[in-house]
């Protein structure tokens, strides 16, 4: 890790800027939205449950009366919902400066989406891949534009099984969660390479929260995973506001560069102030990045075009 990259102020004055936060109604997403709103940003809460999102927005407005919040429905497991969200944002605004790909599903029983994709891979990776593709032109016109993709330290334990992404032959709830988080890291780094090659102003950055006490293990995880992360280890976890520091740093700190990963600076990267750390070596493999990009385009039906500097 690089301690010099730590920050005591995870979000400076953000007045005049707009952020999209997926999964903003609870956990890390809500904590991120709270800080961004408190610092003056206009935040779009991209949420699967619109009623829950509106309750979260009402709560934040009670705490921060001047908060500028917009709630929009987004089901990352449904390509039509992703497209509708992006279309609505392009038409009605606010035009985002930063997209924070935060939402996630953790360790449920094997479940396929209506399009036949394994749920964790679909929500955690494919939905964010397509959302980023749809919004990239808009982001490129923004002020200090960034795409922040939230991964997990567990990405280092995974490999991408391109021959069985749905888990048809062998499914492990936690193993496929780790695979989806590796896909997040591979995607963000491949996006960085393509943005850099096109001289795009958009920065692709990674963050992971360490171990944070969120509802994620309770909202789908089963068996040992739910018992371990939802109960036995919970006293060791940092609160969501601390877990969100790394993604806030990645989204707002001026010294952040494309292709970097930020996580907690404490032992095992489980908790602590944000600092720069290193993705897994296999997450940086350019051939894996190209292959995942091509597979993701095919599975989402999305043509992902990188705008070059002459189009921004």
What's the short version?
The chain is an alpha/beta fold. The chain has 9 helices and 8 strands. It has one domain: NAD(P)-binding Rossmann-like Domain (Rossmann fold, 3-Layer(aba) Sandwich).
The CATH architecture assignment turns out to be 3-Layer(aba) Sandwich
Number of strands: 8
Spatial arrangement of strands, main beta sheet:
3-2-1-4-5-6-7-8
Question: Which descriptor suits the 3D outline?
Answer: globular
CATH fold category name: Rossmann fold
The level of helicity is 25-40%
Highest CATH level, the class: Alpha Beta
- Span between N and C termini? 34 Å
Biggest sheet statistics? 8 strands, mixed
Order of helices and strands: EHEHEHEHEHEHHHEEH
**Mean pLDDT value:** 91
What's the number of helices? 9
Number of domains: 1
As a percent range, the share of strand residues is 5-15%
Q: From the helix content, strand content and strand pairing, which structural class follows?
A: alpha/beta
Radius of gyration: 18 Å
Contiguous low-pLDDT stretches (5 residues minimum) are 1-9, 226-232
The H-level CATH homologous superfamily, spelled out, is: NAD(P)-binding Rossmann-like Domain
């Amino acid at each position: 890790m690089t301690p010099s990259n730590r920050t005591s102020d995870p979000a400076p004055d953000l007045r005049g800027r707009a952020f999209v936060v997926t999964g903003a109604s609870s956990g890390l997403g809500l904590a991120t939205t709270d800080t961004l709103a408190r610092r003056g940003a206009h935040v779009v809460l991209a949420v699967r449950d619109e009623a829950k999102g509106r309750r979260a927005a009402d709560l934040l407005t009670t705490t921060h009366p001047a908060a500028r919040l917009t709630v929009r429905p987004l089901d990352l497991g449904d390509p039509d919902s992703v497209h509708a969200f992006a279309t609505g944002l392009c038409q009605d605004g606010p035009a985002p400066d930063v997209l924070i790909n935060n939402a996630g599903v953790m360790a449920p029983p094997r479940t396929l989406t209506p399009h036949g994709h394994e749920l964790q891979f679909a929500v955690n990776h494919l939905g964010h891949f397509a959302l980023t593709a749809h919004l990239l032109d808009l982001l490129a016109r923004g002020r200090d534009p960034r795409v922040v993709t939230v991964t997990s330290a567990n990405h280092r334990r995974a490999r991408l099984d391109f021959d069985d992404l749905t888990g048809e032959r062998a499914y492990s709830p936690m193993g496929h969660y780790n695979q989806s988080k590796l896909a997040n890291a591979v995607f963000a780094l491949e996006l960085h390479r393509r943005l850099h090659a096109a001289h795009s102003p958009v920065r692709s950055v990674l963050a992971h929260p360490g171990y944070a006490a969120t509802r994620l293990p309770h909202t789908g995880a089963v068996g040992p995973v739910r018992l371990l992360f939802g109960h036995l280890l919970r006293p060791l976890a940092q609160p969501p506001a601390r877990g969100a520091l790394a993604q806030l740093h990645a989204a707002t700190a001026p010294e952040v560069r494309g292709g970097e990963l930020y996580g907690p600076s404490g032992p095992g990267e489980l908790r602590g102030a944000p600092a720069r750390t290193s993705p897994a070596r296999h997450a940086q493999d350019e051939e894996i990045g190209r292959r995942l990009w091509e597979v993701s385009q095919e599975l989402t039906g999305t043509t992902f075009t990188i705008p070059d500097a002459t189009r921004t």
